[in-house]
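One-letter codes give the sequence; backbone shape is given numerically. An example follows:

. . .
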Amino acid sequence: MKKESSSRNIQAGPSDKQETRAEGMATSVGRYDLHERTALFGEAIIRLAAKIPVTPVSQRMISQLVGAGTSVGANYCEADDADSKKDFRHKIGICRKESKETKYWLRMIVVAAPELRDEARVLWQEAKELNLIFGKIRRNCE
């Protein structure tokens, strides 16, 4: 019986990955697949942003959060398709900056919508981990 459940995890479809990763973002399923990890991160940012009450204060923060959070994955795709080592390093640096900016906007969102603190905390942790990963990749390019 254990064999069936472990093979099911290996063959998990996109919806299974999303459910697994939504809880802790960086689980063993797809942990080292940065394309998938950054895409799921962007999707989770969009879902959080949809829950934020729109007020004159939060309106700008929502667009900033969505912009920064979704651009992490977009810039990683660009880095993966870079024309040179220098171009790759530059685009990975942008990924790092965008993940750091996302942390900032998540902090501000919690002030504007304290009821989203727990969900924002999980995303903040994932943004922190992505920032560290991209920083290490960038340093390894030197």
Notes: The CA atoms of residues 68 and 98 lie 5 Å apart. The domain at 56-142 is CATH 1.20.1440.60 (de novo design (two linked rop proteins)). The two ends are 48 Å apart (CA to CA).
